[in-house]
């Protein structure tokens, strides 16, 4: 059975796209940037608290996990609308909650148990190769992602920013987003978000060195010791009586 990575990043190219709206999206997104600035400060603080909780109990407190997951969702929606992808002209909602109808979604399987020893080294030592790759994808800001210094900056610059700029120029003159370019951009964003989730201690599953291109991603992980965050509270199915 194929067991995919527990960080699920999906997107849908929301065509047709405006030829010119991308020129002012930085202005339209300013309210989101202001809110996200404070949310990422809180994200860093919550991650520190979760570090000690995992170290002593082996568990990531579910309310803290839900908050950080919400910040990642919000950031991915804003990045998708703006210059991480330019994949939609639909304005992002101001919400930490899951929005299945929005063209960009993110979910992380809630881990029932996390390694108390691994938490000491995975976010810096083990993740160094991943940081080197994501720095190319997302720019130098990827290196500061785990320090709490403007985590949201990880979504801008680098190869992603360059290719999205090419896509914007193509959109301006041709009125379309090249599909191959779009798939590559989403694959890089997916890689970056997996590394952020791993560095934020939200999973022990090491990010794969694999560029899963396109919006659909890969199948959801099989249930075992991982409970999807969005379905953790769902009742168990009834057991048939023979």
SSE blueprint and pairings:
Layout lengths: L6 E5 L13 H4 L1 H28 L4 H20 L22 E8 L10 H5 L1 H11 L19 H17 L4 H21 L26 E3 L14
Antiparallel strand pairs: 1-2, 2-3
Helix pairs in contact: 2-3, 5-6, 5-7, 6-7
Question: Quick gist of this model?
Answer:
The protein has one domain. Helix content is 44%, strand content 7%. It contains 7 helices and 3 strands.
Task: Walk me through what this model shows.
The chain is mainly alpha-helical. The chain has one domain (7-228). Helices cover 44% and strands 7% of the residues. The chain has a three-stranded antiparallel sheet with strand order 1-2-3, with helices on one face. It is globular, with a radius of gyration of 18 Å. The relative contact order is 0.20. Mean pLDDT is 86; it is low at 142-155 and 219-242.
């Amino acid at each position: 059975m194929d067991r995919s990575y527990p960080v699920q990043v999906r997107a849908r190219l929301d065509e047709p796209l405006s030829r010119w709206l991308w020129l002012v999206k930085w202005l339209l997104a300013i309210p989101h940037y202001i809110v996200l600035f404070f949310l990422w400060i809180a994200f860093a603080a919550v991650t520190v608290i979760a570090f000690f909780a995992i170290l002593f109990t082996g568990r990531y407190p579910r309310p803290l996990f839900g908050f950080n997951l919400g910040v990642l969702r919000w950031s991915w929606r804003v990045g998708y609308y703006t210059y991480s992808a330019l994949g939609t002209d639909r304005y992002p909602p101001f919400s930490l909650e899951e929005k299945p109808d929005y063209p960009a979604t993110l979910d992380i399987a809630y881990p029932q148990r996390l390694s108390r020893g691994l938490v000491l080294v995975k976010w810096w030592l083990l993740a160094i190769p991943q940081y080197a790759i994501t720095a190319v994808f997302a720019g130098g800001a990827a290196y500061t992602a785990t320090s709490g210094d403007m985590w949201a900056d990880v979504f801008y610059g680098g190869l992603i920013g360059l290719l999205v700029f090419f896509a914007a120029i193509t959109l301006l003159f041709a009125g379309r987003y090249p599909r191959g370019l779009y798939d590559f951009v989403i694959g890089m964003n997916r890689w970056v978000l997996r590394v952020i989730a791993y560095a934020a201690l939200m999973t022990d599953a090491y990010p794969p060195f694999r560029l899963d291109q396109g919006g659909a991603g890969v199948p959801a992980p099989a249930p075992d010791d991982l409970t999807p965050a969005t379905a953790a509270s769902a009742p168990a199915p009834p057991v048939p009586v023979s």
